[in-house]
């Protein structure tokens, strides 16, 4: 119990340090909730909400809301289809008329495999986007590939009380031109609170469209299982 408490406190200290650094260095800050509510052997409900702010908590930048249906295949692969809403505003309040609203349809294919203690994840995402700015609505679509590596630090496997190291890379390809729109590289620490809930703190470096951005992201992940326990015979 004391080891779990010490590890949790360590994550809180890291979190506070990163927030202080984000304020000093004008990095962006975001927080994320991601849920996967298992309702049967084959199906679960995906929910996620993310808010992004300029310079820690000083200026609202973007909110992303997504819901979807997951279909679970044998071996741990998942197929997902969903809908999302994105609200983006500029940093300069004098240009709020350039804020945009986006309706987004998205489809995922998620694969995973294990190499010893190392967990490797692959996510292929396809997005159809309707972005409205004032009276103008534009349609576009893109593909995304997300590669992740996760390894537990203080246990052989991820279980309650485990601290893990996570590294991610995601590339965005604009269609139909097949040009690179964005590349995100992230690294951080995760902490498994209980069998269904975990926390994660990460640093994200993004390059795209001639811009470079840095972000501190905190995430809450909740994966409850509502399947009825099978009756013993």
Keyphrases for this structure?
1 helix; eleven-stranded mixed β-barrel; single chain; about 230 residues; mainly beta
Sequence-ordered SSE layout with sheet pairings:
Elements: H1 2-25, E1 28-38, E2 43-54, E3 59-72, E4 78-88, E5 100-115, E6 118-133, E7 136-152, E8 163-175, E9 179-194, E10 197-208, E11 211-222
Parallel strand pairs: 1-11
Antiparallel strand pairs: 1-2, 2-3, 3-4, 4-5, 5-6, 6-7, 7-8, 8-9, 9-10, 10-11
Describe the structure.
The protein has 233 residues and is mainly beta. Helices cover 10% and strands 64% of the residues. The protein is built from one helix and eleven strands; from the N terminus they run H-E-E-E-E-E-E-E-E-E-E-E. It has one helix spanning 2-25; strands at 28-38, 43-54, 59-72, 78-88, 100-115, 118-133, 136-152, 163-175, 179-194, 197-208, 211-222. A hairpin with a 3-residue loop joins strand 8 (163-175) and strand 9. The longest helix has 24 residues, at 2-25.
Concise account of the structure shown:
The protein is mainly beta and 233 residues long.
């Amino acid at each position: 119990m004391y080891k779990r408490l010490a590890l949790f406190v360590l994550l809180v200290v890291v979190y506070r340090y990163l927030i202080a650094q984000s304020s000093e260095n004008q990095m962006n800050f975001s927080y994320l909730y991601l849920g996967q509510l298992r309702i049967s052997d084959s199906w679960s409900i995906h929910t996620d909400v993310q808010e992004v702010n300029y310079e820690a908590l000083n200026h609202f930048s973007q909110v992303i809301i997504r819901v979807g249906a997951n279909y679970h295949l044998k071996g741990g692969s998942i197929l997902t289809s969903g809908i999302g809403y994105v609200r983006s505003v500029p940093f300069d309040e004098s240009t709020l008329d350039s804020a945009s609203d986006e309706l987004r349809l998205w489809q995922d294919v998620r694969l995973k495999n294990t190499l010893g203690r190392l967990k490797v994840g692959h996510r292929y995402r396809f997005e159809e986007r309707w972005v409205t700015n004032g009276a103008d609505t534009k349609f576009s679509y893109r593909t995304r590939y997300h590669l992740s590596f996760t390894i537990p630090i203080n246990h052989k496997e991820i279980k309650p009380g485990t601290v893990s190291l996570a590294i991610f890379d995601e590339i965005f390809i604009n269609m139909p031109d097949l040009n690179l729109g964005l590349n995100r590289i992230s690294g951080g620490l995760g902490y498994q609170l209980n069998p269904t809930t975990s926390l994660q703190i990460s640093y994200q470096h993004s390059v795209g469209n001639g811009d470079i951005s840095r972000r501190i992201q905190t995430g809450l992940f909740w994966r409850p299982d509502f399947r009825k326990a099978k009756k013993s015979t």
